[in-house]
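PROTEIN DATA CARD
Card holder: Nramp family divalent metal transporter
Chain length: 397
Origin: Alteromonas ponticola
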Amino acid sequence: MKDKSGYIIAAAFIGPGTITTASLAGANYGFHLTWALLFSIVATMVLQDMAARLGLVTGQGLADGLTQSTASPAIQKLMAFLIVAAIGMGNAAYESGNLTGAALGLHALIPLGISIWSVILGLLAAVLLYTGRYKLIESTLVGLVFLMAIVFLITLLFASPDFNLMWQQMTSPTISLPSLTMIFALIGTTIVPYNLFLHASLMAKIRRDDNHAQAIVDCRKQSVRAIGFGGLITLVVVATAMTAFFGSENTLTAGNLGNQLEPVLGEYAQWFFAVGIFAAGLTSAITAPLAAAYAVCGALRRPANLDDGFFKTIWLTVIVVGVVVASAGFKPLAAILFAQAANGLLLPVVAVFLLIVMNTHPGLGQFKNRLASNIVGSVVIALIVALALYKLVSLAS
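Structure generated from the sequence above:
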């Protein structure tokens, strides 16, 4: 089987949350928060490499590896509970953002309302997962997302951006209490916790041979290319929104997100943007519940395949919760931003799980984490925890 997992992971994190969060960051902060995005891209490469290595070498997903790499039954049960709570609940929040983003795009085309479109999209995602024939559709939607990225790049060049100003802002990083939610959102939209479980499970299903070292090298190269491209897309969206909105009297809202494409697409900008964010949303609305099902089934040692009834129950629950939250009347941009921030807060828990597995799993042998991977993983955890504590202390004072 040819490995395309790196591009699946990149497509999974380029969802409506990425487009919306990057647009809001560029419009409100310019390039001052680029440091958070660049850090997230590098951290994603390192963490996804760990997850992929686990799947390739052991043939197990992250949840399986975690619960089976600890000797104490009590600790195994505790970790299983935390995985079910963190990934199951976290993906439900993430799913609401995916459905809200996709519904936002469709509402711009046919104004039926965000709630109605969320229900329709939830049903579509459920049907696709139930039949198992979602891969071709997902590939088409990913293609639309990449096409949208090209238009963003062309738009940015035609808009005559001030590259000197971008560089000045990039080298003048900002961190403040008002910007923390946006920082968490940028991190959460890039280092997506469920992608770690998804990547490990996908790699575990690939036919492996005895040459694990070469397979790891090949996988690492592809992941770096794919994730790097995904990061570039996000950076271009930030730059485009900055050029269109930052420092101007125009305020970015749910209704004018597509205005940043007007220099190239004119009156068709909103339509194209709507199709793109719908494509991104539906793609992510499929992968989020799928990853939750892999994680929960792995933690509970249940069969992780599309035909299993319990597996279906997990992804269906995530979709239903996502539909309910997306239909509850929250402001679209606020719901998407909240989902991304929630993932940023969830990340330290998942990263700790991953580090534990990569240092203790008996099946990894010589492919256990080396010092460099442990240092980067620890820095990621420390940064997210520090930001969270800073926000809590600031709010309490």
